[in-house]
Amino acid sequence: MNERPIGIFDSGVGGTSIWKEIQYLLPKENCIYLADSINAPYGEKTTDEIIELSVKNTELLLKKNCKIIVVACNTATTNAIGYLRNTYDVPFVGIEPAIKPAALKSKSKTVGILATKGTLTSALFHSTAQNHAEGIEIVEREGKGLVELIEKGELDSETTVSLLKQFIDPMLDRGIDYLVLGCTHYPYLVPVLKRILPEGVKIIDSGQAVARQTKTILEKESILNNVSLNGKHQFFTNAEQEILQRFVENVTEYVRVDYLDF
Ligand code: DGL
Questions:
Q1: How many domains does the chain have?
Q2: What is the percentage of the chain residues whose pLDDT exceeds 70?
Q3: How far is the CA of 14 from the centre of ligand 1 (A)?
Q4: Pocket test for ligand 1, best of 185, 186, 237, 244 (most atoms within 8 A of CB)
Q5: pLDDT tens digits for 144-167?
Q6: Which domain holds residue 115?
Q7: How far is the CA of 190 from the centre of ligand 1 (A)?
Q8: Backbone angles phi and psi of 184, in degrees to 5
Q9: What CATH number corresponds to the domain at position 61?
């Protein structure tokens, strides 16, 4: 039972930024990662479409006997996690933009958030922003086009840098001192962002919090893997294996990337 894998899914390679935090915090756990790259970006889809894709991913992970599902996608979490929790009898961990910690820490009382359209227009995001960012100005920008570039492995190309500047400059004009990365693809842009942002502006995401929450639930449910020494990690994608491989190599001893027609 405890050796059953943690299931993780995203619209593509972005959720590997969450998987990295999970395998760092929980090195004994086996993981199965599903990258639905063919359907990326989820951020431009309707709530019903996002729910449908999230259901398909969840069912696949359940067929692979996963003991917990990590929805490593802000867009899928903010649009579909309620439906998933009501439908399946397995614990779910979701990811939401880190508005609350940014709002608490911000001195300029102005916080930038870069996320997908699907996340920024969701009811869950609005209630989080309303409940946890009182007195804070939130400067939102849809990162339209960024997920596609990251899916192609363009983390530092001219197009990526100029698109990012286009999104970030208006936030800087408004005086943000925190930039919330509200999409699991965006942590891969941190090296470029650090070049663009002035020194005083800090970047914040929810990756570590998701890993901690996964651990808390596994402990609470008594399903931590205390059997194997090092976890095994298997990745499935319905797009190019090589791209996903690039995002996950050099992290663990046992990593396998397979093509799955899903
Ligand atoms: N990684 C997804 C997220 O966190 C990207 C969504 C998309 O495919 O647009 O929102």
A1: 2
A2: 97
A3: 7
A4: 185
A5: 999 999 999 999 999 999 999 999
A6: 99-205
A7: 16
A8: -70, -10
A9: 3.40.50.1860
Which band of pLDDT confidence, cut at 50, 70 and 90, is reported for residue 33? very high
Shared domain for 119 and 183, answered yes or no, is yes
Q: What distance in Å separates the CA atoms of residue 240 and residue 146, rounded to the nearest whole number?
A: 18
Ligand 1 centre distance from Cα of residue 49 (Å) = 13
pLDDT above 80 for 235: yes
pTM for this structure?
0.95
Ligand 1 shell residues, CB under 6 Å: 10-11, 14-15, 40-43, 73-75, 116, 119, 147, 183-185
Same domain for 117 and 51, yes or no, is no
Confidence band of 253 (pLDDT split at 50, 70, 90): low
Active site residues: 73, 183
Q: Which atom of ligand 1 is the closest one to the Cα of 183?
A: 4
